[in-house]
Design a protein that fits this description.
One of its GO terms (cellular component) is cytoplasm. Residues 8-118 form the Acyl-CoA dehydrogenase/oxidase N-terminal domain. This is Acyl-[acyl-carrier-protein] dehydrogenase MbtN. InterPro entries: Acyl-CoA_dehydrogenase, Acyl-CoA_DH_CS, Acyl-CoA_Oxase/DH_mid-dom, Acyl-CoA_Oxase/DH_mid-dom_sf, AcylCo_DH-like_C, AcylCo_DH/oxidase_C, AcylCoA_DH/ox_N, AcylCoA_DH/ox_N_sf. The protein is an alpha+beta fold. The chain folds into three domains: 8-119, Butyryl-Coa Dehydrogenase, subunit A, domain 1, CATH 1.10.540; 122-231, Butyryl-CoA Dehydrogenase, subunit A, domain 2 (Beta Barrel); 235-379, Up-down Bundle (Butyryl-CoA Dehydrogenase, subunit A, domain 3). It is built from eleven helices and ten strands. It has helices at residues 8-24, 26-35, 40-48, 67-80, 86-101, 104-116, 233-269, 281-309, 315-339, 350-357, 368-379, and strands at residues 121-124, 140-144, 147-158, 165-171, 183-189, 195-200, 211-222, 226-227, 271-272, 275-276. The protein has a four-stranded mixed beta sheet with strand order 1-4-5-8, with helices on one face. A four-stranded antiparallel beta sheet has the order 2-3-7-6, with no helix packed on it. A two-stranded antiparallel ribbon has the order 9-10. Strand 9 (271-272) and strand 10 (275-276) form a beta hairpin. 44% of the residues are buried. The protein binds flavin-adenine dinucleotide.
Length: 380
């Protein structure tokens, strides 16, 4: 499909980024997956080429680029290396919090490092006892003179091992009712005493994307690390989550398209009963169904990208795209693996990795059930 949301400069950028991936990601990717981490050098290389936070103003080390450049980076990484999806998390989900809610001094301190790769970002909302129900978080940050003292535990934190700066959702007023009123966002820097990284979690997919538990034990941070206004953290997250959901949909859509491409090629060259398996009616119908769903997803996702660029609110439609496209990409992964037969179950075939990697997309960034709650409430 011809995508009219992009212009010539975006196409040039995409082509340059594809060359970067070919040269600086693909030759190393299996090793990263094996080691369960994307090395810091990758982040620094991305930064030096302008691929981290391109949206930032030049004075903060960015290129002042429009959202489409971020989309291109997200799509190209999702196509070939889903374990690097810590990058869209850094670029498109966390850095925008700092851009929107930090004061000038905080921006000057942190944003140039986000753009260069010297500061890798993570966001820590989820706790062992609170995932979907974010209001119930228990981590506290109690003001003490010029500091906040944090106590609590977070889990499933992407970039949790690599991160230099973690945006922590915590209760600055644990007694506030309803619970969301007492939530604030506080930045915690690597090596702050009392900030302890727990286990790197062993996931079924996205192996090179590090995911960790984090602990805060009498962790004292300067009060100046508060992002925005005390008690407004929940509001900030609710405002930013629709964007995060679109970012997930963008990655899933690109991955689904690539899975189809790979499967078209496989079914063209693989023969059974004396002919390419693509010539069986069942295979053709299955491919037709997959291609149709992918086309529907593409139209919807591009429409939402365009609406974000126009500054429109996509709270409901972002939730629709997140659940539908991530479900669709999982169906595509299942069907494409099936069309590969036994080869699809072998690690050396790309579809095997996609099948594992895409699974989580229906769970994180708000589970698909929660997305349906968001949509359902808007209909009442
Ligand atoms: C690989 C990975 C990376 C992640 N990265 C991050 C990160 O960087 N930062 C971060 O803060 N978190 C992160 N998460 C956490 C993620 O956002 C949560 O796992 C998710 O929000 C679900 O929360 P939970 O796991 O506690 O499940 P629960 O909230 O316990 O949900 C369990 C089940 O119940 C369903 N459910 C819950 N409430 C309702 C309801 N009201 N109606 C219907 N069904 C409901 C859910 O949909 C789900 O199916 C990550 C998770 C994973 C797996």
């Amino acid at each position: 499909m011809d995508r009219n949301i992009f212009q010539e400069e975006h196409r040039i950028f995409r082509s340059a980024f594809q060359s970067f991936i070919k040269k600086d990601v693909l030759p190393h990717y299996d090793k990263w997956e094996e080691k369960r981490i994307v090395p810091r050098e990758f982040w620094l290389q991305m930064g030096s080429q302008g691929y981290l936070c391109p949206q930032l103003e030049e004075k903060y080390g960015g290129m002042g680029a429009d959202f489409r450049y971020n989309i291109i980076i997200n799509e190209e990484l999702a196509k070939v290396a889903m374990g690097t999806l810590g990058v869209p998390l850094h670029n498109d989900i966390i850095a925008p919090y700092l851009q929107m809610y930090c004061n000038e001094a905080q921006k000057r301190q942190w944003l140039p490092k986000c753009a260069s790769g010297k500061a890798i970002l993570a966001i820590a909302m989820t706790e062992p006892g609170a995932g979907s129900d974010l209001q119930s978080i228990k981590t506290t940050a109690i003001k003490d003179g010029d500091s906040y003292v944090l106590n609590g535990q977070k889990t499933f934190i992407s970039n949790g091992i690599s991160a230099d700066l973690v945006l922590v959702a915590c209760k600055t007023d644990p007694k506030a009712q309803p619970g969301y009123r007492g939530i604030s966002l506080i930045m915690v820097e690597r090596d702050t005493p009392g900030f302890i990284r727990g286990r790197q979690l062993d996931k079924i997919g996205m192996h090179s994307q590090d995911t960790a538990e984090l602990f805060f034990e009498e962790c004292r941070v300067p009060a100046a690390n508060l992002v925005g206004t005390e008690g407004e953290g929940f509001k900030y997250m609710m405002k930013k989550l629709p964007h995060e959901r679109l970012v997930v949909a963008v990655g899933c859509q690109a991955a689904a398209e690539e899975m189809l491409k790979e499967t078209l090629e496989f079914t063209r060259v693989r023969s059974a009963f004396g002919k390419p398996i693509q010539e069986f009616q069942h295979t053709r119908f299955k491919l037709a169904e997959i291609a149709t769903e992918i086309e529907l997803g593409r139209v919807f996702v591009d429409r939402l990208i365009d609406r974000v660029i126009q500054g429109e609110d996509i709270t409901v439609e972002g939730a629709m795209a997140k659940w539908w496209v991530s479900d669709m990409a999982n169906r595509v992964a299942y069907d494409c693996l099936q069309l590969h037969g036994g080869y699809g179950y072998m690690e050396e075939y790309k579809i095997a990795r996609w099948y594992r990697d895409i699974r989580v997309a229906t769970i994180y960034a708000g589970s698909n059930e929660i997305m349906k709650e968001v949509i359902g409430r808007s209909l009442q």
